Amino acid sequence: MYASHLDQKITTGAVDRVPNRNGYGEGLVEAAKKNAQVVALAADLTESTRTHLFAEEFPDRFIQAGVAEQNMASLAAGMSMMGKVPFIASYAMFSPGRNWEQIRTTIAYNDSNVKIIGAHAGVSVGPDGATHQAIEDMAIMRVMPNMVVMAPCDVHEAKKAVMAAAEYDGPVYIRVARAASPVVTTEESPFAIGKAEYFYTKNDTHSRSVAILTTGTRAYDALQAAKILEETQSVGVSVINVATIYPLDEEVILAAATEHDAIVTVEEHQKEGGLGSAVAEYLSAIKPTYIERVGVAHTFGQSGTPEELLAHFELDSEAIVRASKRVLERLS
Amino acid sequence: MRYLSGNDVYELEQKSNEIRQSIIEMLAAAGSGHTAGPLGMADVMTLLYFHVLKHDPARPDWEERDRVVLSNGHICPGLYATLAHAGYFGVEELLTLRQFGSRLQGHPHRGTLPGIETSSGPLGSGLSQATGMALAERIDNPYSAKYFYCLTGDGELNEGQIWEAAMLAGREQLHNLIVIVDRNGIQIDGYTKDVMPLEPLAEKFAAFNFDVQEVDGHNIRSINDAIGKAQAVYGQPSIIIAHTIASKGVDVFERDFRWHGNPPGKGPEDRVPRDEQARVALEKLRTLSGMITKDEL
């Protein structure tokens, strides 16, 4: 059963498709209207990160950092020490990819109130190819003390995550994607940092069940996989959207492991270090559970359309169905 | 810039000598840490904290204070000693440097010790942070009287991030930003001219739209004049290239790059035996390398 707050177009398949990076631009403008201390920086990628919406409305609070992500990170740290709430945006491959140490020392270790937006994360960047497809960013940010890590599922959630980050006092990383992705939630859907949400709750008439934990823009594929599994495999499936990778919503994940036979994690990221790892690390200590991780299998991306790449790297709904079958086979 | 009387200069020189002695004592107690840079920058730091800065050691969070960003965090023994002598915390705490649980971390950590504005150690990011602070201040208050001082090493200028920050500071015409480079000519692997030549350094920063001055980094009056001029510059950030002598004040350690990263007791042995290094260094400082006799002491 779908959560009632979701966009009901998901039941018909005729979903709207919007890049969730738009949510950054919109959320940033909203946050800036509420708080005059919000400033934004971009590294020569102002429009594609959607920072231009802010730059047009608040030109005096926008800093063009040029193609210099390392400087941008520490510049923002310095601005935060004077009371600003800086948002820095670039492609995830360059920030936090290139400037990881600056983020670690001058943002995380300083506990600076800086928000880092990694756009164009995942393989769905498409034709730009592997150099621009960040599929390690959640791993390198999740291990960093003081850092909140989020991967919103769609444009609405991205907007809420940005506004929540502006109100949260401390470093935050938010990854968003380039490609248009299905709009799953609505403006009314609940959101809080650190909170996982049930998007689909299993039908209890089936004897076997699996919980699909998804993060980022894979949510709609996870929902489609749930439908296929319930209809063709007689499997009870729940889909849980884990928008915050760190801190993990341990309560919801433990309950999911208790109420389902197995878990499948889904992310547009390397299998190592992201959501799948976080869930496995947590559950292995407290409730050992069979887990199948859907993610990129320790390889680099390549050029192609987002659809071609998501299928090739086994990140689409069919791959989620296959992974679910695999984990259920292990049970028997 | 406040005028320095002859007596002011004398007292500042006395203070920097006391700070150098503390540096030797704390490094010897720690058994690790950097010697050359802290001794070399002691005069600049003393002048800043005892004459130039608008600050209040009793209120390290005072909003109107000038900011000092130590970009080359490894010379923190010098900053810690200066802060302690200025009254930010007790001088006795200096001997806890680098020990487990100490507020005097091996490299500075913001929030742990009063007076530390930023965490540093990994080189090259201090100038970016100081630039960010200066920029934020200008957004809020274009007529601000706060100054943002960034202390960097010269070896540190190998880092690309320095030049990213310099480009932006120059573009933004941040006249509230004053960079002071410790131009001692050494880095860990050798002389800067051999490892990675920086010259023509003044021209490089001038090309990045900085107002550039070069001074004797041990002449209190010259440094003070340079800072005064830097404060008066409008429409440009300033950089003062302070020519210093590595390990200044202990003649048997001076100019030797092998003292970059070693404390007294673990330095090169060819001029002073290791077990004598701390004692000899303190005696050199107390007697100004023999210029003051024991009787005068």
The topology string of helices and strands of chain A comes to: EHEHEHEHEHEHEEEEHEEHEHEHH
Class by SSE composition of chain A: alpha/beta
Oligomer: heterodimer
Query: Main sheet of chain A: which strands, in order across?
Result: 3-2-4-5-7-6-12
Distance between the termini of chain B: 34 Å
pLDDT average of chain A, as an integer? 97
What is the CA-based Rg of chain A, rounded? 19 Å
Sum up the overall morphology of chain A in one term. globular
DSSP summary, beta strand count of chain A: 14
Helix-strand makeup class of chain B = alpha/beta
Low-confidence stretches of chain A: none
CATH homology-level superfamily of chain B: Thiamin diphosphate (ThDP)-binding fold, Pyr/PP domains
**Strand percentage of chain B:** 5-15%
Architecture overview:
The complex is a heterodimer of chains A (332) and B (297). Chain A has helices at 21-34, 52-57, 69-81, 100-109, 137-142, 155-167, 219-233, 250-259, 275-286, 306-312, 317-331; strands at 17-19, 38-42, 62-64, 85-91, 115-119, 148-150, 172-175, 180-182, 197-200, 208-214, 235-241, 244-246, 262-270, 290-296. By secondary structure, chain A is of the alpha/beta class. In chain A, the strands form three sheets. Chain A has a seven-stranded mixed beta sheet, sandwiched between helices. In chain A, strands 9-11-10-13-14 form a five-stranded mixed beta sheet, sandwiched between helices. Chain A has a two-stranded antiparallel ribbon with strand order 1-8. The two termini of chain A are 26 Å apart. The mean pLDDT of chain A is 97. Chain B is α/β, with parallel strands linked by helices and 297 residues long. Chain B has one domain (6-286): Thiamin diphosphate (ThDP)-binding fold, Pyr/PP domains (Rossmann fold). Chain B contains ten helices and seven strands. Chain B has helices spanning 6-30, 36-40, 42-52, 76-86, 126-140, 160-172, 192-195, 201-207, 220-232, 277-286, and strands spanning 67-70, 148-153, 177-183, 186-187, 190-191, 211-216, 238-243. Chain B has a five-stranded parallel beta sheet with strand order 1-2-3-7-6, sandwiched between helices. A two-stranded antiparallel sheet of chain B has the order 4-5. In chain B, helix 1 packs antiparallel against helix 10 (277-286) and helix 3 packs parallel to helix 4. Chain B starts with 5 loop residues before the first helix and ends in an 11-residue tail after the last helix. The chains are: A alpha/beta (332), B alpha/beta (297). The interface between A and B is medium-sized, with 29 and 32 residues.
